[in-house]
Amino acid sequence: MTVYNTIRGLRVKYLSADPANPEDGQVWYNAGTGNLRVDGIALASSWASGGNMGTARRQLASAVAGTQTASLAFGGSPNGVTTTEEYGGTSWTGGGALGTASYKLWGAGIQTAALAFGGMKNPPSPSNLSNKSEEYGGTSWTAGGNMGTARYSLGGAGTQTAALAFAGSDVPSTLVATEEYGGTSWTGGGNMATARKSVVGFGVDTAGLCCGGDSVVVTEEYNGSSWTGGGNLSTPSRGYMAGCGISTAGLVFGGGTNKTESEAYDGTSWSVTTSLTTGRGALGGAGISSTALAFGGTTGSVTAATEELTTAATTKTFTTS
């Protein structure tokens, strides 16, 4: 039988108590507890305040694939705005204005190559819904192709030239329809199994993810042509969340009635992780699952606050059986 000292050339230390300052990778037997223990590296995440936005707003959109140090926020309410802001890692600065003032829209891409689509203007009615898309080149917005279905409170994923739009509402219906953008025009994609609005989405056009919605915990995953079921969210009532990442390493946060919860997705299931400092719904988000950005939304009143998620390695002692 293989034993530890034949693998490592070392014997496991037999100690009466845990050492005061164990080294990474050190293994020992604690005679007092009867446990074999090993010291290793774990990851610890925490949210902390970033620079405030210039314009407080909720129901805004973002370039979801942007990074924590290069993000883009645009649109939002009250009543729909054209304001665009760019985040450089510490502060927000003004960018080019959207051509159409709207809120409850969605965004894809990165800070220098973003896509805005859908949304609405007040009051909510079929005539005030948008099927427009706009493309951002880093300084200004230009018109893109129109979606086949005007909708608000939708989700999306992808890049400026390969994007998805899905779910949402066309008043009064809640939608299952998916549309795919190829850089100039939108075409129909596979329908979702669950009709819903107020969803969150991220990933790429061939590996996209949609989750949550008004009173919905269901996750669906898109493979470029059709949707399949994924793991359910742990926390219910999570409409108007924000999210970021990829379909096998995603993160959602906030939403609902000023919720603080964050959940991480591994491609199969969700697990609750580090909470936001301030609970908020109808917020924007960007980044990846280990370095995310949360901004705007409502905490009961509309906010301009930004939070940054950082993840760092830390030493942790594990007990083995």
Strand arrangement across the biggest beta sheet: 1-2-3-26-25-24
> What percent of the residues sit in helical stretches (DSSP H or I)?
under 10%
Low-confidence stretches at least 5 residues in length (pLDDT < 50)?
none
**Biggest sheet layout:** 6 strands, mixed
CA distance, first residue to last residue? 18 Å
For this structure, the CATH topology of the largest domain is Neuraminidase
What's the CATH architecture of the largest domain?
6 Propeller
Please name the fourth-level CATH homologous superfamily of the largest domain: Kelch-type beta propeller
Structural class: mainly beta
Task: Please work out how many helical segments DSSP would assign.
Answer: 1
Order of helices and strands: HEEEEEEEEEEEEEEEEEEEEEEEEEE
Quaternary state reads single chain
Count the strands? 26
Instruction: Let me know the average pLDDT.
Output: 91
Radius of gyration based on Cα positions: 22 Å
